[in-house]
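Board notes (copied after class):
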Amino acid sequence: MNAMTNENFHNICRMVEQKTGVRLGNDRTPERRHPARLIPVLAALMLLVLTMTASAYKLFTPMNGDELALGGTYEGNGIITVWVENGSDKYLRFQEQLKIMDWENSRELPGLGGKVLFRNTVFPPHSSGALTLDLSGAYDVELLEREIARVNLYLVLTNFDFQFGHDWICFVRFPQEGAK
């Protein structure tokens, strides 16, 4: 038995169209794209990737020797203060994006769909200061407090959409009693 050819396939399609009245496709065979037409598209795509890579290089990242230290304290009512120490020659600008993770299960804590409020997200070179996060509108505060009390909760902060080399872990603890 001979193999099915394109001509046989098109003849069968025409017969089905004639008998059923349903159009199965256009009559002309699909034309193949010429590789020369793809060159401008590929060149534009490469330029886009290189531009993104070049802009990411200028951002704060430990892969370029930038140093950062973080420490978080839960203040109550969904407020977390993160102590940030920028040991770099670059500005550090945190994006207003956050992941709250459970250390034991490596799972993200579910949010309520609200927005986390960020205060003081920019840190000049060789400076330190406090980044304040108000999670009360975005997370269940009671669940948050239970997770922090178990000492397995950490934050993931970013300055470039959680891309490799642009995400940082910050553990969160309750303040020591009598420290206030």
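Comment from the instructor: Strands lie at 68-76, 79-86, 92-93, 98-102, 107-108, 117-119, 122-123, 127-134, 153-158, 167-173. The helical segments are 6-20, 35-57, 141-149.
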